[in-house]
Amino acid sequence: MRVFIRVVLVLFYLLCMVAMYLSMVDKYDVIYDMDSAFSRGALGNGSNNNAVFSGVILLIISLSQMLFFYFEQSKKWKWAAAIMTVLAFLFFFAK
Fold first, then answer.
1. 84 CB neighbour count, 10 Å cutoff
2. What pTM does this model have?
3. How far is CA 73 from the centre of its chain?
């Protein structure tokens, strides 16, 4: 596989990981830290849309890494794709 495609897929992976992290962060954490009258989670709407979005991002990551694994000939890069996929799943389920 060409070096350019490898770099693009790795950058796409990193971009998806950042999007997953940002979708899992509570946007009201600053308010909870400033005013102790609000308990954690009091200002959220409880719709849990961020978990659904993170799941979709995880699906996109796993599909892209499977394609990367399938078309790559180098064993070193195949291991890297497998490790990146496992790290994405660990990050998703740890949150």
1. 21
2. 0.77
3. 25
